[in-house]
Amino acid sequence: MDVTEIPRKDEEDFDLKKIQTTPDHDDVFGEITEEGPNYRNVGLVGTVILMMKTQIGLGVLSIPTAFDALGMVPGVICLCVIAFIMTWTNYVIGTFKLKHREVYSIDDAGAIMFGHAGRAVLAIAFCLYWIFVVGSGILGLSIGLNAVSKHGTCTAVFTAVAAIVGFAFSSVRTLGRITWLAWVGLPCILVAVMTVTIAVSFQDRPPNAPQDTAVWVSDFKVVASPSFTKAITAISSLVFAYSGTPGFFAIVSEMRNPRKYTTALVWCQSGVTAVYITVGCIVYYYCGSYVSSPALGSAGGEVKKIAYGFALPGLIVTTTICSHIPAKYIFVHLLRGTRHINKNTPTHWITWLSCTFCIAVIAWIIASTVPVFDSLVSLIGALLGPLMSFQPMGCMWLYDNWSRREKRFWLVKTCWSGFIVLLGTFLMVAGTYGSIVSIMEAYAASGGSAAFSCGDNSNSS
Question: Which residues form the Amino acid transporter transmembrane domain (predicted)?
Answer without folding.
Answer: 47-436
